[in-house]
Specification:
The protein is of the alpha+beta class and about 525 residues long. It has ten helices and eight strands. The protein has a five-stranded antiparallel β-sheet. α4 runs antiparallel to α5. The longest helix is centred in the C-terminal third of the chain and has 24 residues. The chain is elongated, with a radius of gyration of 33 Å.
Amino acid sequence: MNVEELLEQYATGVLNFSGVDLAEANLSGAKLSGINLSNANLSIVNLSGANLSEANLTNAKLNIARLSGANLGSAILNNATLNVANLIRADLSRAQLRGASLIRAELIRADLSRADFLEADLTGADLREATLRQANLRQANLSEAVLKGASVTGANLEMANLNASDLSRSDLSGANLRDAELRQANLSHANLSGADLSGANLRWADLSGANLRWADLSGAKLSGANLVGADLSNANLTNTILIHADLTQAKLIRAEWIGADLTGATLTGAKLYATSRFGLKTEGMICEWVDLSPAGDRSIIQNFHSDDSRDFFNETPPTIRIIVDAALEHEANFAIAGAYYQIAQEYRGLKRPPSIESGRRRTVFTFHVDSDEALYATAYIVILPFLDAISTQKNISSMLEMINSEVVANQDLKSPQMVKQLNILVEQAMSQATTIKQMKKNIEVAAKLNFCKAPTQIILTNSSAYTLIVHDNPNFGKRFINRTALNASAYDRISHESTKYILPSLNMVMDFVKGFHYISH
């Protein structure tokens, strides 16, 4: 069958031309919408500007075919071969290309929106500035493909092979790249914000200057990757492998990276405001300084000498634990939740509610704070709902006096500014505690409960994993007092008389403070 015969029959309404051989034919500009060319031989055919929308080209051979500017919207090309085909500016939106072969095909500026390339072979294909929005490329082979400047927003590239591909300056925001292969891929200045890269293999990939804000890189492999100047703000890097990765001046503000392996990595100049520094592997890490300013503007710099950075990146999260010698009941749980809600309205240091471990005999409230110097002040506030608040607060004030006296006498701390900050924070806490007690009714309600009258221990843990008991009720763990049998006033009197806790030694207090990781402003 020749071209004239096909066009004549198509004009009369015939659509089925399955298996036809039209190799090297000229069908440029032909209007063949809805035609059935399944299993057809269309190699080296000229279909430039042709309308093949909704056509059936299943298993068709289109090797080296010219399809530039062709309309293949919603066409079916499953298992078709389009190797080295020219599809420049072609419209393949919503087309089905499952299992199709497009090796070294030219798809520059082609529209592939919502196209289905499941398990398709696009090895070495040229997709510069192509549109692949919400396309399905799951398990597709795009190794050595060029997608420079392409729009791949919201696309599914799960388990796709993108090894050595060029994705520089492409837009992959919101794309699914879970478990994808991206070894030695070029992603420099790419937009990967909100992308799912969990479990992806990005070894030796170039991500310099890339936007990875809110991206999920948990469990990803980034050994040897170039992340110089990349923006990883709020990214999930939990258990990510970053061995020998270069994170020079990378933005890691509020990133989550517990369990990350930074062995041999470079972090000089990284921006780390509000980023946790515990649970990391940092052997052989190179880091001369970091930026800890909220805006990443270098207004707060932490310089390191010799092994200082290793200590800095292996800190324990500073915590306050209130251990209550009683089981938590529903009524108390409700009242304390309300009390801490109201405290948080006045005291900004209480950013998160406590985690609660409720046992049969004891209850543990754990508060996480952002810095060591906030430990004493926050402890002064969070003890408010409990009867032991007065004695705990007195102990905190006494310990602060011990620290101040020692600093004046011996200049026994590396940073006098840190002690100044401690004093400021505790003074503010004292003032706010008075306001909270006067204004917040939930504190008063909680304080009347037997649970909040139970003996407590208050333990601080700093970022060097040193602990300090700031209050230990002498009745803690002693069950000989039947609290429920006593009236409120009798219990209050006994409790106050028995809480003469002996303060820790000066050496213990000073060692605890010396373990602070203080950031100089």
